[in-house]
């Protein structure tokens, strides 16, 4: 992500949080670490889960995940 995109993500999540607006972010589908903006602490990170409610092998994962779906 370039600096402009990251700055836009940060600004957007700060504005949303200061206005009591919840922000959901997809964790990603590379099987690695959670990507931004989902990795920001003010964003509710969502990952993919299988029919047994286990995180899928392709979904990104980490301590930032709030909702595995």
Short description:
The chain has 69 residues and is α/β, with parallel strands linked by helices.
What does this structure look like?
This protein is α/β, with parallel strands linked by helices and about 70 residues long. It has one domain. Helix content is about 25%, strand content about 15%. Strands 1-2-3 form a three-stranded parallel sheet, with no helix packed on it. The model has no long low-confidence stretch (mean pLDDT about 85).
Coarse structural class = alpha/beta
Which parts are unreliable, with pLDDT below 50 for 5 consecutive residues or more?
none
Number of domains: 1
Portion in helices = 10-25%
Distance between the termini: 25 Å
Care to count the β-strands?
3
Write the layout of secondary structure elements.
Blueprint: H1 3-18, E1 24-26, E2 44-47, E3 65-68
Parallel strand pairs: 1-2, 2-3
Characteristic key phrases:
69 residues; alpha/beta; three-stranded parallel sheet
């Amino acid at each position: 992500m370039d600096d402009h995109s990251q700055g836009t993500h940060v600004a957007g999540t700060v504005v949303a949080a200061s206005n009591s607006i919840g922000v959901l972010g997809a964790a990603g589908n590379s099987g690695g670490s959670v990507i931004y903006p989902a990795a920001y602490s003010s964003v509710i990170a969502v990952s993919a889960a299988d029919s047994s409610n286990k995180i899928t092998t392709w979904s990104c994962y980490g301590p930032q995940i709030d909702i595995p779906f």
